[in-house]
Structure formats: C-alpha cells, structure tokens
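Record 1 of the preview.
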Amino acid sequence: MLDWEVSRLSTGERQRLALARLLANRPQALLLDEPAANLDAANAARVTAMIEAQLQERRPPVLWVSHGEERPAGDCTGVLELEAGRPVRLELPWN
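->
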C-alpha cells in the first residue's frame, strides 16, 4: 500500500492518512474538525485511538469540533455546545 497513489485509497484510509501525517509532525496544538466524521464505527475507533495516543504522550491543547454525537478523545477540560449558533451548554473547570 505504501506505493499506492492516494487517489486509490478509500475515504476512511485518506482520513486516517491525513491524521497520521498531522500527528507525525508533532504539532503544538490540534484543531480537529470532526476527525471521525463519515467513518464506520471501527475506523472511527481507530482515529479516536490515534488521537488519544497523541494526547497521552504529549498533552497538546486540542479544539475538537463535532456536529453530532461524536465524542472527543481523552479527558475534556471544557465543553461548549451550540444550537442554532447560540450556546446552550458551557462546562469549564473554573465555572
């Protein structure tokens, strides 16, 4: 598979490849816009596990955007839930 063109990969494989490339660069912070969106349960679990491993190893700050039931990896220090562009729930450790 290492010799394959990226266009030959499935959507899930492309998504995991993009995440692996991002994490390999050891970013100082992560902005994740629905990192497991459109993936089946098994691949969503793989993506979440990749992110959790990065969080446990390095503890970078993370902004995880989700438009549904997708749950962030690891422990959250805060949650902001919006509905129709308005905050409906805010949970922060200092509240």
